[in-house]
Amino acid sequence: MRETEAMETKSPSTLTIRRNPYRKARATPLTVSSRLPSHSTSSSKLPQISSFPIHDILSEEIPPNPPPTVAAASPSRSQDMISENLKVYLRIRPLVPLKSSTKIVGDQNPRSRPKNVWPQVSSKKNSVKEKKISKKKSNESCIMVSDDFHSVTLSPPLPLQETKRIKSEVYEGFSHVFSTESTQTEVYEKMVNPLVEDFLRGKSGMLAALGPTGSGKTHTVFGSPREPGMVPLALQRIFKPDQEWRFYLSIFEICTERGKSERISDLTSDGPDLSMQQSAIKGLQEVIVNDVAEAELLIARALLKRSTAMTNSNSQSSRSQCIINIRRGTNRSDAETDEQSNSAILSIVDLAGAEREKRTGNQGVRLAESNFINNTSMVFGLCLRSLLEHQKNPKKALQKHFQNSLLTRYLRDYLEGKKRMTLILTVKSGEEDYLDTSYLLRQASPYMKIKFTTIEAQPNLLCNKRQFQTLSRTEQPKRMKLGNPDASMIEGKIVGDENQLPNEGNLTHCSADLKNSRPQNMNSDDLMKRERTHQITQSFAKALWSVLKQHNEKLKVAESENQILRENLRNEKKRSSEMQKELKNLRSCCTCSKGNSVASIVVKVAENFESMLHLGGQTSCGIDETKLDFDSSYHIKSECSSSPRILDSTPGEDQTNVKVYSPDCKCSPEKGKHFPRQQQDICSQVISHNTSSNLSGLECFDDKQEPEAMDGFDFLDGQVRGSEEVASSQSICFSNDNCQSCQILESFAGAGNIQDNSSESNYAVTEHLDPNSDVPGFAVSNLGNDSGTSKLPGQQLGENDEDSLDPVVSTKDVEHSQQQDAVDVPESEIRPDTSCNSLKKEKPKRRLLPASSILVREISTFDADELDKPRGNGGVKNLDAPERQRTQGSISLLRLLKSNLHSLV
Ligand SMILES: Nc1ncnc2c1ncn2[C@@H]1O[C@H](COP(=O)(O)OP(=O)(O)OP(=O)(O)O)[C@@H](O)[C@H]1O
């Protein structure tokens, strides 16, 4: 055994597996994205996702085969190598068979003529024929064995060298070359005994003899009484006196039925032909054998049934493929029941030798048999060649040549590299056999590059299943170089059956254990499973990479959206802080700072206004708090209880029962007296607060329903339209119905951060009727900023309205509005007319009619005589069409101006 391994170590045969060319992986999307300029600062703060190691996966390297020195270093483990080359032996038959190895030829009936199997009876006839044949053959040998018995040199005969210029060929890499002088015992010890020992340890194996007809296959397998072959020698080893195992023996042959079909015959019984189901032979009889004698007798009887025939090449040529199986059963002390699936089987196959039609001269049935034999040999060789090519290039599929013959179907596992197999090539050394020998060596010598994995698993596993699964990836033909620790963790997580992941140290430790335990752990099935697992994992990795790429794209989109939301949030926070600041100022200014609702604030403001009016000498200018009613939408209902003109508001009309009083009255005895700064701020903040509380739309309107009530009203200007609640805008009207004309010239100026530069700006909080909801709302019109903050009827909101939609009126807006007013209407003309505005609500549109515009229009058509005209039906219905264009507010304003003029006079 050690000698054999030492020779294997010296074997020059090495396998060179080409590595796939280095492929450059494409840049990952993450890498590309990292190159893109970051449009947001927040994106740079996002955690970077490590790129998937697809580049490493694609650049996997195929590790070289483990050097044979590893096996030599541990002889006891050499037989357990997970992957070993197919052992191919070569035996050269002597030119002149020794006398001891002569065959016994019976009658010419191939079925009844026994093959050279023991016990045999010598036949003088056969011996004479052999001698005659040997005399005809050349005594020259065409094959020469090297000194190391691992290679041979095949030299063509001189005629072939001269005519076809064929040169000598060297075939090397054989496990051992048995020369013509080798004995059966030597062959057994070097070739078969390892198989038998493994078989006794529970490992299956198969020995197959290949070679041209008459080359000594049958002689090697079965031998003769004087020179017992491998089978009897193996039986002698198997049935040693201390053998405790139970063995079963079966023999069958596969031959052709007149060259048309194949049939399987059980040589241990006289039953009908057998059938094959997949790779199993149905109905094959197993005979339990207890000793060598029983086994030899059984085999001898079986060989008597084997199909043989005399040909020109061999007087006793095998016409069938003969397979003998020795199965190791359970221990003799165990129960009778036995499970074949767990048993080790030693198979020895004696193939029929390929024949050359010219040499054999077969005709008829013999020719059909020859075709069957040659076909089977060809299929057998194709299977091995396909296996070899598949192992060289895994991408090349393993061809299913085994389906083309019963023999290869039966030996499928061996021919696909799943079980260990040993080949013995037999050749004849004569020059006349050069072509047969050359053909066989050319065909079969590459088989020695075929690899087989370890046969059986041992119970003493060094790694548990989980460790093995985790580490098996590192031992795969294509190793995944996962340099990224995270990837290693993912790898372990996928393979591991628990959440507990092995760290790097454990992986290294287990890897070492795996190398040691690999011979016991691995077999061909495991290798196939690992290969499949590798392919599945690789496909999974690619699919995962695709999914990650898609998610990365989505992540980038979400990131941009997130950035926009953050910007909006930042703006909202800014606005919120400003509003809170204003609210704080408002509360600080409000006498009753505890009120949180708009209603309370308005009430307080109204109270302040009323008190101011009282302080200003007004008789009655206040708010009936009891009539203030805020609905859920900040609907304010208020009536001026003190003003006879206001009180005539129709109670049933909700649109007109909202009356909040203006704090300033220009026409009061203390005309021109301005509100204290505090009150102005309060009003301004009320507006602002209303705006922030969805009291966004503050509009002026014409109230045609109450021309009288509107008479003498001065609408506070200062429209602030909220950007979000335009439709639900509400209005509040501060009015002073005691005043014929209530005017606020400088009210609500400043208010801190609202009107710092617009101390002259006037705010009018007016009643607003929502035509859609019929709910009064707040409307505050800035008379000084009409053009900037209010809209004429029918005027649509444009892009510039964005500024007006801002609840916080900026200084810029005020200035801009003032500039526009200065252009449209001279301030000198407007200011006297802003003392009193009476705007009628205009349905259905909720558009503001800027007071300034109204004043300008009215003043341009002002006729003092109109004021003296009788006003029937509210002074509106009798107006002509052009005059109807004048709103009641303008009429009231004109009257106010008139009265002022009278008072001044
Ligand atoms: N190594 C050997 N030493 C002596 N005689 C041998 C040797 N090998 C074969 N012979 C003799 O050569 C003859 C043919 O051998 P054998 O029948 O085994 O060939 P084979 O390969 O089985 O042929 P076939 O394929 O036609 O059955 C036999 O008579 C056998 O005794």
UniProtKB/TrEMBL annotation:
GO BP: any one term: microtubule-based movement
Q: Coiled-coil segments, which residues?
A: 548-589
Q: Which residues form the Kinesin motor domain?
A: 85-450
Database matches in SUPFAM superfamilies: P-loop containing nucleoside triphosphate hydrolases
Enumerate the residues binding ATP: G211, P212, T213, G214, S215, G216, K217, T218
* Tagged with keyword ATP-binding: yes
Any keyword Nucleotide-binding?
yes
User: Which superkingdom does the taxonomy of this entry point to?
Assistant: Eukaryota
Extract the Gene3D superfamilies matched here.
Kinesin motor domain
Entry's Gene Ontology molecular function annotations: ATP binding; ATP hydrolysis activity; microtubule binding; microtubule motor activity
Keyword vocabulary terms for this entry: ATP-binding, Coiled coil, Microtubule, Motor protein, Nucleotide-binding
Please list the residue ranges that the record marks as compositionally biased, kind Polar residues.
Answer: 782-793
Low complexity composition bias: residue spans: 33-44
Write the gene name: LOC111312818
Q: Which family does it belong to?
A: Belongs to the TRAFAC class myosin-kinesin ATPase superfamily. Kinesin family.
Protein name, UniProt field: Kinesin-like protein KIN-6 isoform X1
- Which organism is the protein's source? Durio zibethinus
